[in-house]
Structures are given as C-alpha cells and as structure tokens.
Amino acid sequence: MIANRLLIAALLAGAALSSSAQDTSPVVSPIHLAGGASDPAAVKRVQQYLNEPWKFKSKRLRRDEVDALLAKPDSVLFIDLRTPAEFIQYGSFPVFLSVQNKDLEKQLAYLPRDRQIVTVSNHSQRAGAAADLLASKGFNVIGATGAEEYEVEGGTAVAHLVPRAPRVAGAASGAASTPRS
C-alpha cells in the first residue's frame, strides 16, 4: 500500500513537472495555495503555532536544518502525514513518502529503519506527534517540520502543483476537421 501511495505521489509530481515544462497554456489557480512569507494568511497560521509551546519530545526543525537534510536524499526519508489534498493545496517537499497520519501505525512494518526520518505536516503539530510515535518504536527520527512553516521561514524547496487550465472543446486539435471523401 505504501508503494502504491509513493508511486501515486511520484506520478503526480512528475506529471505536474512535465506538464508545466511542456505546456505553455495558462494555468488556473486552485481555490487557495499557501504562499509562504508572501501570504499574510499563511504567516498568521504559522505564527499561531510558533507562539505555542512545543509539546513533543522530537525536535522541531527549522528551515536551515530542513535544507541541509534535503541535500542528503539517500540517507533521509521525509514522511508526509497529510492527505493528498493537503499536500496539493499547501505544497510538498520534492521527495517524500506519503503515509497519512491515521494510517501511520498500520504502516510501521513498511518503513525503512536504515534511514533517518523527518515527519512533515502543515504546521509540524501532527508531524511532532508522529515523530514521537516513530521514535518510541525504534525509528531514527531527526525531527518534525511543517511545509507551511518552512516556507514562511524563507524555504524554497516546497513544490506547489498548479493544475492546467481546462481545455476548451475543439481547441485541443488546433485544426478544423474536414470530412474524408
């Protein structure tokens, strides 16, 4: 099941990257995209969580720490605990394994024990709880981070999927159809 989710996440990311590289048609923004430090609503959400005391044993990672870990993809596994709708809406790190928070305990047998783990949520709260759970089960957890926190702190590695504009019927071929004789 994890392999399926990883494949789906990779396919979504690959499709978005290849379509954005090949397609020059205008894009339609989703209802809301988190925008890091340039999004006042995102800054407000992040500040709310940063002002609360950290209640987890695992470390809350800051932008510079996350950037350093992203530079070592062979030894670090980022586990994104959010729903696919959340990482599409708020963005995600370029390489991650998607295991929804509600399924984490059921998926422990499939997680690698030979890699360092960073857990990811929007504002690191779910990630902190999951990091503590994984550490208690013997996994090598480095810490927890929030994708939106990372962006508000100036991080640039979070990728946002932007859907293509809907195609207008008949406009896809670019040529008028003529009847064959």
N-to-C series of helices and strands: HHHEHEEHEH
Taken as a percent bin, the fraction of beta residues is 5-15%
- Count of beta strands: 4
Physical arrangement of strands within the biggest beta sheet: 2-1-3-4
- Separate helix tally: 6
* Mean pLDDT across all amino acids: 78
Number of domains: 1
Main β-sheet: number of strands, strand sense, barrel status?
4 strands, parallel
Q: Class in CATH?
A: Alpha Beta
Explain the overall architecture.
This protein is α/β, with parallel strands linked by helices. It has helices at residues 2-22, 40-50, 63-70, 84-90, 125-136, 147-152, and strands spanning 76-80, 97-98, 116-121, 141-146. It has a single domain, classed as Oxidized Rhodanese, domain 1. 36% of the residues lie in helices and 10% in strands. It has a four-stranded parallel sheet with strand order 2-1-3-4. It starts with a helix and ends in a 29-residue tail after the last helix. The model is unreliable at 1-34 (pLDDT under 50).
